Amino acid sequence: MRRALVVVLAALIxxxxxxxxxxxxxxxxxxxxxxxxxxxxxxxxxxGxxxxxxTATATHDAPRGRATRGRRVRxxxxxxxxxxxxxxxxEGASDAWxxxxxxxxxxxxRTAKRIEAILRGPLRAGTTALYVVDADTGRExxxxxxxxxxxxxxxxxxxxxxxxxxxxxxxxRYQTRLYGPVPDADGSLAGDVYLYGSYDPTxxxxxxxxxxxxxxxxxxxxIDGGIVVGPEANRDAIFRAKIKVTVxxxxxxxxxxxxxxxxxxxxxxxxxxTTARGKRGAVTLASKPSTDGDQARLAVTIKGTxxxxxxxxxxxxxxxxxxxxxxxxxxxxxxxxxxxxxGVRTEGFDVFAMDAATHGWLPVELGTHQSExxxxxVAQVNKRSINWLADRVVMTAxxxxxxAVPSMTAGVDAMxxxxxxxxxxxxxxxxxxxxxGLSYKTELSARQIVxxxxxxxxxxxxxxxxxxxxxxxxxxLASLSVAGVDGTLRxxxxxxMRGKLTAKxxxxxxVIALSGFLEAAPGQHLAFALITNGNRKGDHHAIxxxxxxxxxxxxxxxxxxxxxxxxxxxxxxxxxxxAPxxxxxxxEATDDEADDEAAPAAQPxxx
Length: 607
Known about the structure:
By secondary structure, this protein is an alpha/beta fold. It is built from 13 helices and 22 strands. The strands form five sheets. The chain has an eight-stranded mixed sheet, with helices on both faces. Residues 2-94, 568-573 and 581-607 have low confidence and may be disordered.
């Protein structure tokens, strides 16, 4: 495998420990499918894909179709059953090997047979696609419906994060600057200051505390003016604006104490609650926008009765994020020892600069806060599968590249361009409409996901090899969850694969997916995509267990080959595993639109 992939993956996954790989377990009996037509959509041929060896035809493999939300999937031939076609060495052979003892089968035949058993068991309901290749050469090893257009859920983040890294580079940092007049000799500013951001999706109260300390460190002690922010809150304000209200019981009959975090003048509290004599009781919170003169406020009322000895924490998501952010910064300045005489207001930076000029001064940069590097932000996206952050990162990256206002349209367009240029996937061969995968419209094939992985890791022959590209590839690999160690795989694969699998999970109400790289031996890796659509929501755990069993079989297969040929990557003939007739999931699949790995929903924006 190319040096970049070997070096980075070796550093990432050098924490493996011994253990037993998962073994297949029988799944629950699937319900029969309702009749419904499934329209198949061919996927574009992946760029740089190695030609497979000639394979026998899977004569009873029924056609597959889309398995998106609200659609039932079944083959036209209800009597179809699983068939396995093995590479050139078995071409033209009968299927008598199916009935043979395992000891009489080749390694690839045994592996295919065991994968088939899992497909017939716990993965029987719905449609499962599997595509496995040698990560370096792209040589196909196993496949099940590799070109079916399915929904991979959060595996879409594999595309959005690669797009963002290439657009901005892994070292890019979002900047939030404070502009104002030149300080006097005594550290005073004679005028307003302007908080000017760069659409930083990670900006938070702690970052504004850092910026306030930076201002104080310059010797600034007083601002004879107010705090100004722009009307575009997504650019200048805290994107995930949140106020935490903690209510603590006192003595029976008395009002509880209330603590607001962060503490600012923006929150106007009214406490209409008491402490109960007994242990039972709860308080409620109501909030609405208000004003204090010309200053924006949020009126918060606490009502109810709180049980004796109890503490209750509630959260508010303010809609006026600009005014809220300015008040948070104003309070941070005060804690840093910088007095602010004025209030807060909202206006465009051009208006602010023109007003400053009429008063005989021009704005200068007083201090800057920088976000973490994009590589670290992308790692949060992929390891923790944070939906809102994935969307914001690709939107802001695409906008920064072309000098525009962030929008999902621009972000998705950038993702399609990356898919075509790097992974060889044409725009009309896939359907994506978000950077997070939190959508029931997505259509990608397992083969396409594997090509995305290889492109992101920089192992396709067409991959750029300059220093910036290599840094992007390293950051991309480092962003994937490590089995049994971190991210959404922290609690999974605590067996021989711990530390040897780096992957991205995906979950929707009727989607389970897992795609990534599997280390067979030092310097030898498989790239795979495993996607199940159409399962019942209550079967999430069983589907994940079945996926782990399939990956366990792949691991056993690859390590067995590595032991016989330690100096070469797996070279088994391509093996196609044909799944059984898929059974439709019930139509009562929930319309929750919420990825199991999601963070709380982001504030609505005009975009």
